[in-house]
Amino acid sequence: MGQTQRKMGSGQIRFMAPERGVNQLAVNAILNALWDLWAKVERKPLWQLVADMSPKELVRCIDFRYITDVLTPEQALEMLKQQQTTKHERMQLAKDSKAVPAYNTSVGWLGHSDDTVRKLLREATDQGFKHFKLKVGLGQDVDRKRLGLVREAVGDEGVLMTDVNQLWDVDIAIEYMSELLRSNPHLKPWFIEEPTAPDDVLGHAKIRKALKQHGCGVATGEHMNTRVLFKQLLQAEAVDVIQPDACRLAGVNELLSVMLLAAKFDVPILPHAGGAGMVELCSHLSTIDFVVVSGKKSVLEYTDHLHEAFEAPAKITSDGYHETPTTPGYSCDVKEAEFEKYEFPDGSFWKTDQGLKMANDPWRGCYGEQTS
Ligand SMILES: [Mg+2]
């Protein structure tokens, strides 16, 4: 698998955009499909396929090119061997669906009224959620009010997170967050997510340093295309949390290398799970990280939408954990009926008002203002 990863990114086509952009998305799609097939052939959920590997077998799945200055295959092997001794205990926790605690973002989407946020918050705390993420950047007054509302509802033991989807310049991020956090010292978010451009490693480091005095960390990673950027973020001590995306790196292979890098720097991984099918994929990744790589429980986003489109939908337990996947494969099979509905241009969706509006948009949604 490591060789396959290397060869998929090394042909002449790399001159289009090496390990990034549309090339990397295509590599991701093919590698993930291979992992899915491999797990199905072995009749195991993907996380278990990886968890059942010996450290040597797992290391062979990774292309270490460009990261050996920080992590060599030999060092990775040692790290994995150390985790082996207690792996069976974590394996049992995974089988009991006690491996991956869930966090909720549904309360924080832009566009919700205060009353809706209060209502969603009550529902979420009743379900056992303790972590809450809110979009910010709406203006100091609005943000202070909404964050205050959530902090008040969840108390000191609740964990608040904030996300601004790359909206700010580096110094604006520092000024905005400092002012917000100074105005109400009880807000204390765990982190601000994607405060600036995803590629700006040193910018993230500067923001992290400035916000430390307010007890707020920095998180990013959902738009990063390669292990190299993660390596640099960790080297530069630019982040408190990293959030790799299951569909943006070179398949499970590269995710494994990022997990190992994060474990080496003792930075938790919260895979990015905000999108259709993302919770399904990420519940495998977080389980692998806990059972095999870091040995530490982290949290994973649970967004309650579009699971019904999948053959093996993600679920949460009554005590706020992700249900560990049991169906063979990578939980990425979409139901046949969804293809009949959405396949362009003959699917039934494209005859609806919304479908026609989208199909007739000459910009296909590409051009416009940032709305979230
Ligand atoms: Mg985000």
Automatic annotation (TrEMBL):
Keyword list, A-Z: Magnesium, Metal-binding
InterPro entries: Enolase-like_C_sf (IPR036849), Enolase-like_N (IPR029017), Enolase_C-like (IPR029065), Mandelate_racemase_C (IPR013342), RHMD-like (IPR046945)
UniProt cross-references to Pfam families, sorted A to Z: MR_MLE_C (PF13378)
Gene3D superfamilies the UniProt entry points to: Enolase-like C-terminal domain, Enolase-like, N-terminal domain
Ranges of residues in domain Mandelate racemase/muconate lactonizing enzyme C-terminal: 114-214
Keyword Metal-binding applies: yes
SMART domains referenced in this protein's UniProt entry, alphabetically: MR_MLE
Listed GO biological process terms: carbohydrate catabolic process
Cofactor(s) essential for the protein: Mg(2+)
Cross-referenced SUPFAM superfamilies: Enolase C-terminal domain-like, Enolase N-terminal domain-like
GO molecular function: hydro-lyase activity; magnesium ion binding
Protein name, as recorded: Mandelate racemase/muconate lactonizing enzyme C-terminal domain-containing protein
